[in-house]
Amino acid sequence: MTIQWYPGHMAKAKREVQEKLKIIDVVIEIVDARIPLSSRNPMIDDLTSHKPRLILLNKADLADSQLTKQWVQYFEKKNFAVLTVDAQLGKGIKDIPMKVRELAKPLLDKFRAKGMNPRALRALILGIPNVGKSTVINRLANKKITKIGDRPGVTKSQQWIKVGKEMELLDTPGILWPKFEDQDVGFRLALTGAIKEEIFDFQETIVFLLNELKTSYPERLKERYHLETLAEDITELLDDIGTRRGCLVAGGLVDYDRTAEMIFRDFRQGKLGHISLERP
Length: 280
Ligand code: G4P
Hints:
The chain is α/β, with parallel strands linked by helices. Helix content is 41%, strand content 12%. It starts with 6 loop residues before the first helix and ends in a 12-residue tail after the last helix.
């Protein structure tokens, strides 16, 4: 679900996250593996600086695996714990409790030093809309938890879900807003479904995608649209793709809207292969 963020919403979302953080030992931040920086709110670092944090690079099944490896190294260099996950199929999910334990070792040691039996660790899932928070929660819970609207202010009573013996997870995630002051960040969010594509000019979004594909995945473009060469000029490239695919209007001219929609669909359905839109 994509929502509009107004300053009031943002302030409220921040307050709600801060409130949840008070009862939490470990934060599990979810980002989209295809756009690991664009799919996080920069404020998260400040908000959660006092908590151990595990970053999940989710939707890894859609991302470029070579780049995902580089992103893992990128975050590890910054001293984050990081896991690559495909929540839809459940890949990587079983490693989460172990990582959470590793992260919370100082806390567990503190309990033991006081002669207390360590209690279950309390974790919170946090991220912008559509990165897969509910899917991860459902996977960890091993059942379907009702999803609330991605809307600050829409609250339901929160409950702890037991994940094994040593971890408890809040059944409602913390939701932060996407930040897209930079236009390219907005294009990446629109292409991956974090924000509605209508927020951005659709043609411009596709031009951004074509430029990315031309630079980083030229062979995929050639293969998918049966092109021998890729035109320098993006309008010409759109022309070539539209012509090849028969997206034409009367008179044999290329229908740019239909061509752009087809490219967008191909990208979303993974027909252009595993593609990441951001490099470390
Ligand atoms: P949210 O709570 O963070 O808002 O995200 P949610 O779990 O609802 O997931 C958003 C969409 O992403 C869902 O698709 C979900 O199935 C998909 N998704 C989650 N994790 C993965 C993953 O690892 N791989 C892939 N390929 N997809 C994943 P949806 O319900 O069809 O929504 P939409 O895609 O139509 O927006």
